[in-house]
Predict the 3D structure of the following.
Amino acid sequence: MRNFANYSQEGVLAREMYMHYGYAVYLSQMFEKQLVALIHGFLAMEKKGDWPYEKLLEEVEKLNKKNTLGQLLEKVRARITLDAALEAHIQEALKRRNQLIHHYFDTNVAQATVTDGQKIIIDDLIESQKIFEQAFFWVDSLNRELMKKFGVSDENMAEIIEKIRQEEVAKFRADLPLNKLD
């Protein structure tokens, strides 16, 4: 087995390859979270205040845990029509996400062990990152349009997101052993 821990050119490229892989997976998850947020907005509009906020969050969590990315996309398509360019881009993001999560290193095992193959993989992963970022921003713009229908401005949305982030950080820190806190 190869030792990728050394500082040879091959080891440096291997670490860079895995770093790009991790970042691509992260961006694919952020894209997925944006879809969940969009469905959350649709549910809120459909229920028009009939459900308390906590019930909406509970339903969104169920959607997020029980549905694949493809199923989430179907739920979005059931509510809005995506233009052809966005549909094609989202299909490419879905295809790349599934390949990354389920088969990436199976299909690239030989390339991942040699320098020239690692360079090709890095280029492919950077392309995937761009596709996920673009898909994220397109869905984000749909979310912003939906929020404006609720009277939520971009500034209000930034405040809401920051509040949620702070709550999540507080939960994270509450579970940390004292010796791990800053």
Q: What stands out?
A: Confidence is low (pLDDT under 50) at residues 4-8. The two ends are 38 Å apart (CA to CA). The longest helix spans residues 9-47.
